[in-house]
Amino acid sequence: MSDSVKLKKDIRELGFEExxxxxxxxxxxxxxxxxxxxxxWKKGAHYFDEMTNLSLDLRQKMxxxxxxxxxxxxxxxxxxxxxxxSRFRLHDGHLIESVLIPVPDDNRFTVCVSTQVGCSxxxxxxxxxxxxxxxxxxxxxxYDQVILVNRQCLETFxxxxxxxxxxxxGEPLLAYQNVMKSIAHITGEYGxxxxxxxxxxxxxxxxxMIKKMADDGTKVNLALSLHAADDIKRxxxxxxxxxxxxxxxxxxxxxxxxxxxxxxxYEYIAFQNFNDSMSDAANxxxxxxxxxVRINIIEYNPIDNAPFEKSSAENLDRFAGYLSRNGITVxxxxxxxxxxxxxxxxxxxxx
Length: 351
Description:
By secondary structure, the protein is α/β, with parallel strands linked by helices. The protein has two domains: 3-67, DNA polymerase, domain 1, CATH 1.10.150.530; 72-340, Aldolase class I (TIM Barrel), CATH 3.20.20.70. The protein has helices at residues 3-7, 16-25, 31-41, 56-65, 139-157, 176-187, 207-215, 231-237, 246-260, 278-286, 313-325, and strands spanning 9-10, 66-67, 72-78, 84-89, 95-103, 108-112, 116-117, 135-136, 163-166, 199-203, 221-225, 264-270, 294-299, 329-333.
């Protein structure tokens, strides 16, 4: 990389006022900052030449002073069920994956975005957890996944995205600042202007950051990747539980709900003869009593060299039926994109 490139600032790392100040230093009127900001965050421009209501001279100066570092599509895979997994290359050569999950009958088109290159949590059932965590994604790299997958959704299905879930590679609450910045750009008036109610952030259970979300006044929905309803079992498959016990996480979720009234859901992957018994269901029911919660029971998606099998349909129905009869809203989510390693827990940048 040349010295001149190293000196350039990534314009998407700058706030609106900073762009105003730098334009003023360049001898440009401050109102140009709003035009540029909208090109970046509303229209998703990836190159200065796309900013056609700016003069050619200004576009050239922008290129002299600033960088735009968009993510680039590396590969897409198409599932028999319509799911599309896309692998994106970052400016430093690292790879991440996003998944487009279409459910046309329900008019739902969801993108599952990544927040880290790799992951540091080492959950035993998850392929991403076997990768080293290299770095957090920048807010712009998270935002770009939404922009590019939305274009893909329009081209493939003739419909824009309807929902965003932060459930891809990485733990969102360990990339907290950049995750929240990306949400601000997605929901902001001078961004994509999405309703935060259409966005869900998933966590494996970082208690202090759940409370911080509440204190920061977030409006998005929150999902806990639970997967076991007692500490012994959860410790055995999710090492994060050793430092964030179920009681600590439940206390944080209670605080989140009481502070925000935002929707909370539990994600619960069902493993045969591990967490799918009626005693497991009874333990899970106890965790549903402190605040309103929805349960998404998820079919397990096999990964290489993991000692788990998916629960039988009979066990799943019995488990879900018990919760439903006790007044809990339960959805059993059948796997989508499994044939292209795009299902929950399978993202690992495979070729």
